[in-house]
Write a structure and sequence with these properties.
Elements lengths: L1 H18 L14 E7 L1 H10 L1 H5 L3 E7 L5 H8 L4 E6 H4 L3 H6 E9 L3 E3 L14 E5 L2 H13 L4 E2 L12 E3 L5 E5 L4 H4 L5 E4 L1 H6 L4 H4 L2 E2 L7 E7 L6 H10 L2 H10 L6 E2 L2
Parallel strand pairs: 1-2, 1-3, 6-9, 6-10
Antiparallel strand pairs: 3-12, 4-12, 4-13, 5-10, 5-11, 7-8
Length: 271
Amino acid sequence: MKKSIVVSLLIMSALILGLNQPVNAGGKKEASGSTLTVGATPVPHAELLNLVKDDLAAQGITLKVVEFTDYVTPNTALIAGDLDANFFQHIPYLGSNDEWKNALISAFGVHVEPFGLYSTKIKNVNDLPNGATIAIPNDPSNGGRALLLLASKGIITLKAGAGITATVQDIASNPKNLAFRELEAAQLPRSLADVDAATINGNYALEAGFNPVKDSLIIEGADSPYVNIVVVKKGAENDSRIKALSSALRSQKVKDYINKTWNDGSVVAVF
C-alpha cells in the first residue's frame, strides 16, 4: 500500500514537472522562466531591446541585455556561448570574418541606420580641401561601405567590380588627393578633432550626439542594404525564445517607437 502511494506521488510529480516545461519550436523542452541573453551596442540596439523586455516577460522569458562598445566582442562572446544572440551588425559585417560566418547566422532584420560623413571643420562636402584626411572604419565591410558612400557622391571613384568590401587600394580616381585614416569604428567620432571628416556608423553618430540627417555632410538613403540584424549561432534560429524576440522587435509597438524617436530618418524600420 505504502509502495503504491509512493509510486503514485512520483508519477504525479513527473507530470507536474512536464507540464511546467514548455516545448520550443525544435521540440525540446525549455525551462519555464528562461533567460535570453543578448549582446548589443547601446543606441539604438539596447534601447530597442529594453523596450520589449516586458513583452517577453509576459511569455516567461527574462531578457538580459549586455551592452558592448565595439564590433568584435559581441561575436566572440556569442561563439563562446556567453550570449544567446547579439544585435549590432549587418550581414556584410557578419560575412567579413570566416569564423563568424561559419558559426553564426542572421535570425531576422530590424532596421537600418544610415551611414554618413561628418566634420567639425566644414559645413559642406564641397568645401573639403585638397589633401584632406578622411577617417573611415578599419573593418572590411564598413570600410567598403564608407568608400561606396564617397563614390556615390562623386568624391572618389572605385575600380570596376569593387563591391561592399572595397578598400583604399580599389580607388580609381581621387581628384582632391584625399588621405584615408583607418580606425576602429567606435573611435571615429573622437577622431573628428584630428581629421577633416570621418565616415561614422549611425549608432556611434547617435551616441556622440549627432543627428545623422541634419549633421552629416552626406548620408546613405533609406534603401541601404546594410540592415541591422539579430544574430545567433547556426541551428539556434528556430529557438522559441528567438522567435519570441523576433515578434517583439518587429512589432507595431517598436515601429511606432522608431518612427517617433528617430523621425528624422536616422533609424529606419525595415518591417
